[in-house]
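F.,

This is the one I mentioned.
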């Protein structure tokens, strides 16, 4: 039990927020922290994630979308804020191998693009290099290998393969010459003695410099040669000093904006230890040099001249001043370092305090969850008990209702029988009153609508008596139009009369009848380029009254064509569908015209109602359609979107039982 507790890692909950570079929340992302499982960011750019002690400090943040990357992140007060940006580069995997396919390990690979990018191959001969988005690999000349020549380049979308062979060295470096000449003492002496001073720049180390010039007598050289040798010696000494300075700063150079805090502190510790060791060494050297100077002063101070003593005193005072300044700088840097350390300690203890608060908050959250679960179980138990009681109550209530329903059914049957005769008389009286009202309306409107074209014709005739021949021709056309309007109204009235005397029931080939009716409007369809589509099976036969079916189809097609062309559209379309469904046939006619306003949809089937101010009809078309549908025992509905479309749907029985004229008339009324 103790072993498990010691090995367990404390996990804490942190709030995760994602922002773009303008600090706007970024939503719907999948993020992996330290290469753990992905965490989904919701539609508010916020999520919660559990992190263990080993996850801190955060070393890497990776996004599932390979086009994005984490620009930076900050963990403070239990909130991890991540700045997201688009990648300005893409990574390509490069394999470096020999002609035999063996991987070349530890080889420096350089890509010479817009910027030079370098990397060193791993144990498998692979290296990954970042390239700009607009950079492409197209030739082996873009690459260079350290001590190898590239023989062949093979590329794919995100991979490249370099085949290389060792580079052939044309000249031998002075160091290698020295090592080779050392193996043969006789040739070595000849080489060093015969060294060409014009190749002095080829010497790159003090070892080679000493091996060459230990056999020379500097005093025997001429002045220009001595100056060249001295300059080369000073250059090699300077390189050695730079190398020492570089080693001294190697830890500081590892600290940058992209490194991790733990690594930065480790580098600072290493740098501090290095500086402490260097101070000890310098202190020992300094004390040794002071001792030597004191010895020299003891033995030779009296022999110094007045001028030398004055100069020595000035140098000692300068040394004192420099040491005082160094001491001041040391204490100043020391105080700055102490301030930084105090800040780090303060943040550390603040972090511990925050962790304690988060732990307390997490414990409180777990306790609330436990209490919530207990309340949920109690509520669920009460609901189950209440549901059982309701089921029992419903069962007994249902039994009582069935008994009551039987009694009510018996009473209702007796009442229906008693009231049947009275109801039939009332219904017939109501039907007759409705028929009389409609008849009055027909007579009034018909007389008015017939008088209007008659008056128009009479007025046109009076005008014709005083106009010339050309103007009389125009009046004649108007007389014809008025006459056609009168004829159309009379035909509608005759159709209403035919509905009341529908005729016999017979088989009707529905598809053929639709084609015949469409032919009547062929001229209008062609002139307006209407896309008239008929979807009907050729063998669809219904047993019904032919003239009523023809009235329904003709009026619906005429209505669809008229209101379709009223709309300002590039394409007019009328679709008529007919199909058999069980014992009924369903007719629908669709047009992409001006549609029907919702305020008048309830009045579409009223007698003499015109749904649009541009309508040239007399308001009887849809009224006749409704009466015809009712006479055939069907129903009609309308669906419309103003300014978009209209669709009329008619449902009729396929096999209409034969009725006499009086029965059909009663149905219409």
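My design for it:
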């Amino acid at each position: 039990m103790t072993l498990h507790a010691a090995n367990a890692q404390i996990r804490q909950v942190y709030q995760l927020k994602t922002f773009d570079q303008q600090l706007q929340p970024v939503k719907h992302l999948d993020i992996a922290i330290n290469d753990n499982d992905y965490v989904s960011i919701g539609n508010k750019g916020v999520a919660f994630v559990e992190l263990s002690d080993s996850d801190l400090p955060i070393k890497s943040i990776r996004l599932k979308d390979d086009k994005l990357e984490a620009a930076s992140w900050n963990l403070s007060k239990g909130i991890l804020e991540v700045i997201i940006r688009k990648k300005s580069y893409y990574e390509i995997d490069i394999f470096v191998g020999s002609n035999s396919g063996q991987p070349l390990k530890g080889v420096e690979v350089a890509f010479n693009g817009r910027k030079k990018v370098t990397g060193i191959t791993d144990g498998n001969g692979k290296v990954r290099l970042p390239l700009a988005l607009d950079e492409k690999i197209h030739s082996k000349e873009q690459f260079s290998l350290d001590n190898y020549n590239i023989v062949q380049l093979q590329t794919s979308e995100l991979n490249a393969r370099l085949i290389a062979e060792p580079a052939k060295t044309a000249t031998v470096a002075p160091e290698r010459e020295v090592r080779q000449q050392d193996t043969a003492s006789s040739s070595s002496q000849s080489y060093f003695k015969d060294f060409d001073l014009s190749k002095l720049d080829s010497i790159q180390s003090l070892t080679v410099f000493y091996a060459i010039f230990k056999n020379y007598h500097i005093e025997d050289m001429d002045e220009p040669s001595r100056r060249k040798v001295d300059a080369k010696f000073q250059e090699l000494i300077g390189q050695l000093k730079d190398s020492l300075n570089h080693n001294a700063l190697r830890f500081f150079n590892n600290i940058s904006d992209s490194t991790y805090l733990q690594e930065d502190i480790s580098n600072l510790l290493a740098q501090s230890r290095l500086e402490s060791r260097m101070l000890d060494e310098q202190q020992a050297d300094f004390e040794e040099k002071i001792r030597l100077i004191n010895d020299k002063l003891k033995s030779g101070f009296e022999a110094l001249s007045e001028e030398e003593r004055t100069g020595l005193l000035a140098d000692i005072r300068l040394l004192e001043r420099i040491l005082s300044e160094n001491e001041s700088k040391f204490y100043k840097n020391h105080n700055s370092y102490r301030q930084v350390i105090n800040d780090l300690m303060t943040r550390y203890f603040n972090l511990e305090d925050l962790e304690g608060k988060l732990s307390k908050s997490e414990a409180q959250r777990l306790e609330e969850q436990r209490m919530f679960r207990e309340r949920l179980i109690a509520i669920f138990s009460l609901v189950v008990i209440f549901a059982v009681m309701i089921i029992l109550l419903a069962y007994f209530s249902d039994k009582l209702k069935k008994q009551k329903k039987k009694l009510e059914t018996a009473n209702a049957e007796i009442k229906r029988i008693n009231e049947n005769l009275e109801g039939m008389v009332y219904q017939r009286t109501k039907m007759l009153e409705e028929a009389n009202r409609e008849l009055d309306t027909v007579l009034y409107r018909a007389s008015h609508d017939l008088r209007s074209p008659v008056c128009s014709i009479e007025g046109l005739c009076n005008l014709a008596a005083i106009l010339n021949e050309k103007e009389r021709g125009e009046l004649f056309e108007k007389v014809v139009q008025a006459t056609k309007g009168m004829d159309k109204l009379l035909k509608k009235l005759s159709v209403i009369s035919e509905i009341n005397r529908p005729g016999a029931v017979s088989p009707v080939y529905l598809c053929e009848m639709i084609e015949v009716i469409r032919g009547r409007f062929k001229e209008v369809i062609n002139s307006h380029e209407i896309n008239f589509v008929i979807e009907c099976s050729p063998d669809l036969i219904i047993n019904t009254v032919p003239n009523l079916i023809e009235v329904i189809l003709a009026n619906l097609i005429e209505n669809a064509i008229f209101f379709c062309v009223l709309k300002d559209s590039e394409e007019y379309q009328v679709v008529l569908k007919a199909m058999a469904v069980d014992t009924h046939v369903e007719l629908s006619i669709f047009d992409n015209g001006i549609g029907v306003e919702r305020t008048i949809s309830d009045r579409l089937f009223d007698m003499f109602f015109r749904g649009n101010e541009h309508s040239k009809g007399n308001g009887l078309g849809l009224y006749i359609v409704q009466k015809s549908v009712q006479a055939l025992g069907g129903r009609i509905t309308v669906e419309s979107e103003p300014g978009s479309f209209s669709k009329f749907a008619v449902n009729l029985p396929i096999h209409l039982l034969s009725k006499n004229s009086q029965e059909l008339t009663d149905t219409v009324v």
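The chain has 13 helices and 21 strands.

Talk soon.
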